TrEMBL record:
InterPro entries: Cyt_P450, Cyt_P450_E_grp-I, Cyt_P450_sf, Cytochrome_P450_fam2. It comes from Pygoscelis papua (Gentoo penguin). Keywords: Endoplasmic reticulum, Iron, Membrane, Metal-binding, Microsome, Monooxygenase, Oxidoreductase. This is unspecific monooxygenase. Belongs to the cytochrome P450 family. GO terms for biological process: epoxygenase P450 pathway; xenobiotic metabolic process. Its cofactor is heme. Pfam families: p450. It is an enzyme of class 1 (oxidoreductase). One of its GO terms (molecular function) is arachidonate epoxygenase activity.
Length: 146
């Protein structure tokens, strides 16, 4: 939720259905990334597009997460106050507006969506993994707790 506050400008209730679905999709993708078909997809996407496997589910999950992000971006575009950015998305949208006349600008909605997802995945994945390993170490060596 801290990452959500920085990126989306809002925290989600832990019982929020959309938020829980988002976390489930991310967790499922983390598991699917270790499948051999998914790893082969990274090297041979043209071939793997025609073959079944867990990489197809990973792609669908990523599209759903991307759609979630695009909905939040669209809402931010409607309520944007350029003089008072609320979060990362607003700051990026302000930069997009500044770069509007530049045909070579990398500040696009697509880039915003991908960057937002990268920040979200990086923040949630590393934090949860670090906490999980810390708890496991504490369980294995309870004497360091006291």
């Amino acid at each position: 939720n801290i990452i959500c506050s920085i990126i989306f400008g809002d925290r989600f209730d832990y019982e929020d259905k959309k938020f829980r679905t988002l976390i489930e999709l991310i967790n499922e993708n983390n598991k699917l990334q270790s499948a051999i078909q998914t790893q082969l997809y990274n090297f041979f996407p043209a071939v793997m597009d025609f073959l079944p496997g867990p990489h197809k589910k990973l792609i669908k999950n990523t599209e759903k997460v991307d759609q979630f992000t695009l909905e939040i971006i669209a809402e931010h575009q409607k309520t944007l106050d350029p003089t008072c950015p609320r979060d990362f998305i607003d700051a990026f949208l302000n930069k997009m507006e500044q770069e509007k006349g530049n045909g070579h600008s990398e500040f696009t909605v697509e880039t915003l969506s991908r960057t937002t997802l990268d920040l979200f995945f990086a923040g949630t994945g590393t934090t949860s993994t670090t906490l999980r390993h810390g708890i496991l170490i504490l369980q294995k060596y309870p004497e360091i707790v006291g």
